[in-house]
Amino acid sequence: MLEPKLFQDLMAAVGAQxxxxxxxDLRPYECDxxxxxxxxxxxxxxxxxxxxxxxxxKVCRQAKVPVVPRGAGTGLSGGALPHAHGVVLSLTRLxxxxxxxxxxxxxxxxxxxxxLAISEAVAPYGLYYAPDPSSQIACTIGGNVAENSGGVHCxxxxxxVHNIRRVRGVLINGEIIEVGNExxxxxxxxxxxxxxxxxxxxxxxxxxxxxxxxxxxxxxxVLAAFDDVVKAGTAVSNIIAAGIIPAGLEMMDQAATRAVExxxxxxxxxxxxxxxxxxxxxxxxxxxxxxxxxxxVLEAAGASEIRVSRDEAERLKFWAGRKAAFPAVxxxxxxxxxxxxxxxxxxxxxxxAGIEALSKEYGLRCANVFHAGDGNLHPLIxxxxxxxxxxxxxxxxxxxxxxxxxxMGGTITGEHGVGIEKINQMCVQFSREELEAFHALRDAxxxxxxxxxxxxxxxxxxxAEFGAMHxxxxxxxxxxxxxx
Amino acid sequence: MNDLLxxxxxxxxxxxxTRQELELRGGGSKSFYGQAPRGEVFDxxxxxxxxxxxxxxxxxxxxxxxxxxxxxQTMREAGQMLAFEPPHYGPGATLGGLLAAGLSGPRRxxxxxxxxxxxxxxxxxxxxxxxxFGGQVMKNVAGFDVSRVLAGSMGTLGLITxxxxxxxxxxxxxxxLRFESDAHAALDQLARWAAQPLPISATCHQGEVLTxxxxxxxxxxxxxxxxxxxxEVPAGANFWSSLREQTQAFFAGEGELWRLSVKPTxxxxxxxxxxxxxxxxxxxxLRFVESPDPVLLRDWAKAQGGHATLFRGGHxxxxxxxxxAPALLQVHQRLKRAFDxxxxxxPGRLYSEL
Lengths: 484, 354
Ligand SMILES: Cc1cc2nc3c(=O)[nH]c(=O)nc-3n(C[C@H](O)[C@H](O)[C@H](O)COP(=O)(O)OP(=O)(O)OC[C@H]3O[C@@H](n4cnc5c(N)ncnc54)[C@H](O)[C@@H]3O)c2cc1C
Hints:
Bound molecules: flavin-adenine dinucleotide
Strand order of the largest sheet of chain B: 13-10-12-11-15-16-14-17
Order of helices and strands of chain B: HEEEEHEHHHEEHEEEHEEHEHEEEHEH
Number of domains of chain B: 2
Largest interface: A-B, 96 and 87 residues
Helix content of chain B: 25-40%
Radius of gyration of chain A: 23 Å
Strand content of chain A: 15-25%
CATH topology of the largest domain in chain B: Uridine Diphospho-n-acetylenolpyruvylglucosamine Reductase, domain 3
Number of strands of chain B: 17
Radius of gyration of chain B: 21 Å
Distance between the termini of chain B: 29 Å
Largest sheet of chain A: 7 strands, antiparallel
Number of strands of chain A: 18
Strand order of the largest sheet of chain A: 15-12-14-13-17-18-16
Distance between the termini of chain A: 47 Å
Largest sheet of chain B: 8 strands, antiparallel
Structural class of chain A: alpha+beta
Structural class of chain B: alpha+beta
Number of helices of chain B: 11
Oligomer: heterodimer
Strand content of chain B: 25-35%
């Protein structure tokens, strides 16, 4: 229950239409895309403009109440999970596109604008916003910045951090900060880099200038099947070795392909151990040249089948399967748990073998979807939360995959963020001093530690309780002990 | 920890205790840049050499003292490059200095900036602690992105000991074109081209000449050449490297060189000096014979969405970099205090408050 004084102050800040406190109104906010974690907040505030955001933050800072910023709530790491004693600050009413400058190739948008809505709004100018998370119809640009989200085209066009020019935000004390500008660099420390991927801990983002990209004249996609996962992995390396940076380079294993085929009938070969999708875009001449080179590499790597999309409809069909991979797996299992480790590409065969061994050990099935071009792995662990103990087993399985990624020289999260989900694995990836540096960076923005507390960076105490070993220099502290 | 790093760590710890100010320096090629260096020189060149380079992973990792020229040579042999085309400003430029200065060259608007290619760092902070941020993989959102924050930090947050950068393939084809054009017309033309999918990889306007570089697949460059017209520049590569290194005639002579980074569509404005325009309009170099009024330049740059830097020459005591807004400066000061509690690493090199 909200204290009367806090209720009154929040009411004064956002008005009755902007404040939710009834249990049935709060329920939809109890989790984000990671529904294994739930917490009903004390209140949800829905400001209509930046002035109201400032007012809310001032109230919360005065009352020492934690604030959890929230976009569309599609996050997959529990970043927007409410705080038991806190307020959820939803940015979904800040949905205006403030300016489109087709000549400078930029747009100024509010944080609640949906990712896809930006591309739709600028399409008449032949432009689009390049980062395309699969959740792009729903997720907000504010959430994208806070997570530094990626998409299937980020190998060539970059992650969110590469496509943001300027962020305006409000600090917990109500002060406005602007980082970046309309130019191609800014004076001082690159705090724009810090805000990208800040998971709501540094500032509440209220305005964003995004970079727009001219739409390529043509895009074409190659689908290649392999009877062996290692061959597919080699093909990926060979494409890069040939000096080709495709617009997208994705891999799916057989479990994922079969789930998808049942769902969207993308025409994927079902007998393949793994398939690759490789997209080329540019002028028609450029695409023809690149497709020819890619096809040669794929043939040499031993692809059992190669199909080149003949038209836009077929290209979209190829992608429809990949983009529906998560929901497709959702159809064949009561619950699934999506991991997000990134590894150096050459360790792929070893990591896939490790995942398979773990799958046997835990007795849980796992489908693999992979942003192969940049080494970002999405194992989808299938389980049934209604079977006692299965969720815990799935989580433990997932944790082991992440530790494996760290040991291979990779990272626990490529694009979904740490949130609450991977907070323990942060103790594995970073040393005490590194975690202290993260806390210091947070304190430089929010010395009160009221913005999204408990997420993204674990307290040292938490790490001590988790008893994690920090895997330094790709080595574990007790290499002699068996892990698989 | 490596023995050399151990001794460095001890030296940093001692400096903290005795409040001994240090000037972190690689090859000294960018000593002219930023506020005047002060303190005891801490030479970083001894820690050098490639650590890891697997071209198929698109990642190169090297120690801070490694000469930039050596890194670029190694990459060229593997058919790759640093896509942000960093300026060296002297034969001694090192990798650590490159990251600390955070400068990018002609390809910046089209391929991204130095910070866009930073994947990870190792550093010694002002307490002498060895820290690792980021890594060697393309995507990594575990923890705040400290490695990118270090790009352009001018050595004020710590001694960068290792850097991992993303590599890019060398373009298959490259060619340069020249057009007669005054500055107004050139900026209009550049804005029109920017909104089209053309393989432009660098632009330069100076005097009455607009020069353009095309890079990419054979077919793409050929098609763009046919579409754009203009006259082909012989030995185009030399033109761009001399532009990057500021060895062209425009940059010669005494006086002040100002760097105005603005939105690409900022109108051409006579600010009392000869101008050279790069980055599709987003970077304007101004050569003054007489010292200009810095306030005027800063106000204009700010109104055009950017900032002004006194790049070479002139009086640094009036400030080199555009002042920061109070709230932003406060965040900077807290960050500086966290990484360098005694304030001894390159003190004042970026701002007098840091
Ligand atoms: C089916 C599905 C597919 C997905 N595919 C991808 C994918 O391909 N690539 C990818 O990277 N991610 C993907 N995601 C994850 C998710 O969509 C992204 O992380 C997205 O950026 C979250 O945006 P959101 O608006 O939903 O943010 P939320 O989930 O509401 O919030 C995410 C985090 O950002 C913070 N936050 C939100 N808005 C603000 C703000 N204005 N200011 C400060 N902090 C803020 C929150 O506190 C939280 O920590 C997918 C999710 C689903 C459900």
